[in-house]
Backbone:
């Protein structure tokens, strides 16, 4: 089953369950400063979750999302992405756990015909209600229901002890078992293991509490359902692939990149190919939603993704501007849900080409850049400061650390790798904060609501 059909099957299923179908929101959230990009399906419904209803109490979407908190994992794992589509069904004070669990199980096992014995579930360790539904009504064997703690199965993660204040609750995840030939091979392996055998398919969040200052949880008068299922992961499961990049959502992009790698150079590095295939989707959709490459905020993310992709292409010996050539391919893959990409493909290509040319020029003049940034340290050693500048060159300009380090070694300038790593870690934390729900995620003032 192709991804386009799978997406539509999901929406049709929930339409039949009396859900209103709502179009994907932009990657740039409107009137919501709590996130840089739309990171989840629930974002456009924050007002409804707060009780500001809009004529419907149950809804389903296929939401385009962008996250950068796992950027370093993209291409290296089977299922991490910057851009992805999140299938979700939501209830605002309408149905709750029993219906949400039943809907999810029916869709996976009856509609998609996934074998029940391949599915496992996790629940929050104190959620006896969910346990009884999974075991008693759905008839999932007891040994395939695992109980996890606040970090894994409470939303937001560890909210009970660390916050933020506001709506929160336990969650239940559904996993697909790829079989003991995948992963660690231990006979006692289960979804708590991170070996890769179990693919997290669907997360069902039961928003039933309001966290108050001091960690006090008060029951919400109206309980909500917030679910999320990555289309890319689900497509891999349905198509029998162990890696999302092997599905029809990515393979045309992968083939085009591979075809342009010089024969005989031994540079067919799948991790690099997959990273570029991922990043180009994020770049195209962000530009389509009005984000141009720049040195600030959202534009900085787009610029960074273009430059990271350019570095990966050099690693595959693709020397000339190339990313822009992938735009028509992505537009063709995504034409059913996003026909606007076909209409704007030339404009998007021109923006990417200009940015790629600019970076190539910057990279080739790196000698001048190094002289400008580091000459002062030849006679005045400051390894910590040099490490910080090396990080700026890596993060802002896309200059690999190895290239900077070679230049520093040639000129006898010492630098602190610890200082570089500290800056890198802080940047990762900033990216996580930009992608994740902030402490004021449901703040009425920030959402321009009046109580």
Residues:
């Amino acid at each position: 089953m192709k991804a386009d059909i799978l997406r539509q099957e999901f929406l049709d299923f929930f339409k039949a369950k009396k859900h209103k179908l709502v179009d994907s929101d932009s990657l740039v959230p409107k009137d919501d400063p709590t996130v840089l990009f739309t990171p989840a399906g629930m974002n456009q419904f924050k007002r409804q979750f707060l009780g500001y209803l809009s004529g419907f109490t149950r809804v389903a979407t296929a939401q385009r999302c962008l996250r950068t908190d796992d950027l370093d994992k993209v291409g290296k794992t089977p299922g991490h992405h910057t851009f992805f589509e999140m299938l979700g069904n939501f209830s605002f004070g309408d149905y709750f756990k029993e219906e949400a669990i039943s809907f999810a199980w029916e869709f996976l096992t009856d509609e998609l015909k996934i074998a029940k014995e391949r599915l496992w579930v996790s629940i929050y360790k104190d959620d006896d209600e969910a346990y009884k539904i999974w075991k008693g009504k759905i008839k999932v064997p007891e040994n395939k229901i695992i109980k996890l703690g606040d970090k894994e199965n409470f939303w937001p993660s560890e909210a009970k002890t660390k916050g933020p204040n506001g709506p929160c609750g336990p969650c239940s995840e559904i996993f697909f078992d790829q079989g003991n030939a995948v992963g660690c091979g231990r006979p006692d392996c289960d979804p708590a293991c991170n070996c890769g055998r179990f693919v997290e398919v669907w997360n069902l969040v039961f928003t039933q509490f309001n966290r108050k200052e001091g960690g006090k949880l008060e029951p919400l008068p109206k309980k909500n359902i917030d679910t999320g299922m990555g289309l890319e992961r689900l497509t891999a499961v349905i198509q029998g692939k162990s890696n999302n990049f092997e599905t029809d959502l990515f393979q045309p992009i992968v083939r085009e990149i591979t075809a342009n790698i010089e024969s005989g150079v031994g540079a067919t590095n799948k991790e690099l190919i997959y990273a570029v295939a991922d990043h180009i989707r994020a770049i195209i959709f962000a530009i389509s939603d009005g984000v141009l490459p720049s040195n600030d905020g959202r534009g900085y993310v787009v610029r960074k993704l273009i430059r990271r992709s350019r570095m990966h292409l050099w690693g595959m010996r693709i020397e000339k501007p190339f990313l822009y050539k992938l735009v028509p391919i992505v537009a063709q893959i995504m034409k059913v849900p996003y026909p606007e990409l076909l209409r704007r493909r030339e404009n998007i290509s021109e923006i990417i080409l200009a940015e790629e040319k600019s970076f190539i020029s910057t990279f080739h003049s790196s000698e001048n850049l190094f002289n400008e940034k580091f000459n002062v340290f030849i006679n005045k050693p400051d390894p910590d400061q040099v490490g910080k500048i090396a990080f700026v060159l890596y993060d802002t300009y896309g200059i690999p650390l190895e290239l900077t380090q070679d230049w520093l070694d040639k000129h006898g300038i010492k630098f602190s790798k610890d200082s570089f790593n500290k800056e890198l870690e802080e940047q990762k934390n900033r990216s996580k904060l930009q992608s994740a729900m902030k402490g004021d995620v449901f703040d009425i003032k920030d959402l321009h609501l009046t109580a």
Observations:
- Strands lie at 20-21, 58-66, 83-92, 119-124, 145-148, 154-155, 166-177, 198-211, 217-230.
